[in-house]
Design goal:
The structure is a homodimer. The radius of gyration of chain A is 19 Å and the shape is globular. In chain A, a hairpin with a 7-residue loop joins strand 2 and strand 3. Chain A has a three-stranded antiparallel beta sheet. Chain A starts with 14 loop residues before the first helix and ends in a 7-residue tail after the last helix. By secondary structure, the first copy, chain A, is mainly alpha-helical. Chain A has one domain: Winged helix-like DNA-binding domain superfamily/Winged helix DNA-binding domain (Arc Repressor Mutant, subunit A). The first copy, chain A, is 60% helix and 8% strand. Chain A has five helices and three strands. The longest helix of chain A has 28 residues. The structure holds a DNA duplex.
Chain lengths: 145, 145
Amino acid sequence: MAVRSDQGKPEPLTKLDFEALARFRFGIRRYLRFSEETVRGHGVTPQHYQLLLALKGFPGREWATVSELAELLQLRHHSVVELVNRAQTQDLVERAAHPTDARSVRVLLTPEGERVLGRLSALHRDELRRMGDGFAALLAPDGTA
Amino acid sequence: MAVRSDQGKPEPLTKLDFEALARFRFGIRRYLRFSEETVRGHGVTPQHYQLLLALKGFPGREWATVSELAELLQLRHHSVVELVNRAQTQDLVERAAHPTDARSVRVLLTPEGERVLGRLSALHRDELRRMGDGFAALLAPDGTA
DNA sequence: GTCAATGTATCGCGTTACGATACAAATGCC
DNA sequence: GGCATTTGTATCGTAACGCGATACATTGAC
């Protein structure tokens, strides 16, 4: 992979390194593209799907606070607020009082959100299995996998 | 993973399935977030970096046509046109005549684009090695990896 | 030479994430 | 218990970006 160890000043990348990075990026873009077209075909935006998935996929519970979602979705707090607003008008999620902290808000799925997420997640699971090994190969940045 | 085989009508996903999908998505978001902050810190947008990388990472050559880029970046043709326009004003890429097809355009890196890409790609390579196994584990959708 | 197919470019638009800002509740300190 | 600091959520204006619709040039088939 043309790397020494883990120093700050790296030696130049080889053509193969660039190709591997590009392949990896392409794999991600392709998956996200599949996801986008799939979810839009079901009437929701990619952001909505990610929101629903983050809620249902939260370890141990089925809801999350705005701050937690900001971390999971890697967005700013107020971007999540807006996203939740939008999803709420679509009847995909709802807000509820936090049991112990009156500042926080519990964001949780509506039955409709649950239904949509179920359908979409199944399609994503299938696609991931389809990509499966191909995706894993992308992770070998020296192109030898 | 709670799957039968590969039929169209899937059985419902388990909590673990949802968690795995959410983890996978989180991993992607995290990587893209790292990428965005890194490249912006060097004065380019994420789209610019992806464009440069697609050019330099093209197997066998160091340039690509607009159509090829549209496929690699998973964008519409005209979105790529606009992206190339923007990158061109930043002196990151340039257009050149296609040798055999007068309709096509060769998009290639400028020396400046080459420099920027080299620096940024090294950082991405390092980050990927850092995430390395963690990312691979995300790919096991049943959470057992 | 005509015509469909291909490749690139332009324009206007809607969405979305952001920074700046504001407000409410909780926490720590004395 | 009062008060400052921190934490959590929300609002507003803005800029970037990808897209659909559209236009134009070149190629290739016949």
